[in-house]
Design brief:
- The protein is α/β, with parallel strands linked by helices.
- It has six helices and twelve strands.
- Strand 5, helix 3 and strand 6 form a beta-alpha-beta unit.
- Helix 1 crosses helix 5.
């Protein structure tokens, strides 16, 4: 699967959020409170930042109009446990090719989102209803629990977490992630042969633990 400005979506999902984050050298992860709305949900796409008022999802409806194929709506809902998003909006999003949703707030209809295969990550699951009053902001940078998200940043979300890769660093991060994955494959082979992580990563130079002689292997 490819598209997304020449990026290989399948490769990004295989590398995963953790490897991409670690290889980036940046604090580009979202707070662990952001979790998949259903088991197996995963997202790759370009961020469309949205700001919504607490308990008001009108901005998300405007976001549906603004976003297009391969985009991810990344929404600051203030962390409020309301059902900002559900099956109806997911169907509308898929018709436009929108890749997924990341929201600091709640979603609902999680079984239906799973059946649709629509990737959604949220900080809560909630059936509490919303109003439609404030149109919000679209495309303006937002801050999600300390992490700034700009329009066009690359979003990679899976069961491990959500990485937001700055748009100008994506090529560098991808190359670094490929190199890290290749190195880790070689490490795995050595571990399967019985090598210890202490030696593999040269951790012995950091010192030895203080042991209780009575509990040491040699005293048994």
């Amino acid at each position: 699967m490819s598209g997304l400005d020449g990026l290989d979506v399948a490769e990004l999902l295989q590398l995963g959020s953790a490897t991409l984050y670690e290889a980036s050298g940046l604090d580009c992860f979202l707070d662990p409170a952001f979790r998949p709305a259903w088991e197996g949900a995963a997202i790759v796409g370009r961020a469309v930042p949205v700001t919504a008022q607490l308990g008001d999802n009108l901005a998300l409806h405007h976001g549906l109009e603004a976003a297009g194929r391969g985009d991810v709506l990344v929404v600051d809902g203030g962390g409020a446990p309301f059902g900002y998003w559900g099956e109806v909006m997911a169907v509308a999003a898929q018709a436009r090719g929108i890749a997924g949703l990341v929201i600091d707030g709640g979603v609902r209809d999680t079984a239906q989102l799973r059946d649709l295969g629509f990737g959604a990550f949220s900080t809560s699951i909630s059936i509490r209803g919303t109003v439609k009053q404030w149109p919000g902001t679209i495309g303006v940078p937002i801050t999600l629990r300390g992490r700034v998200v700009h329009a066009g940043d690359l979003v990679v979300a899976d069961r491990d977490g959500v990485a937001i890769l700055p748009v100008g660093d994506v090529d560098r991060i991808l190359e670094a992630s490929r190199a890290r994955a290749t190195k880790e494959d070689a490490y795995m082979a050595r571990l399967r042969e019985g090598e210890l992580t202490l030696d593999l990563y040269d951790f012995r130079r950091l010192g030895d633990p203080i042991r209780d002689a009575a509990d040491s292997i040699g005293a048994r």
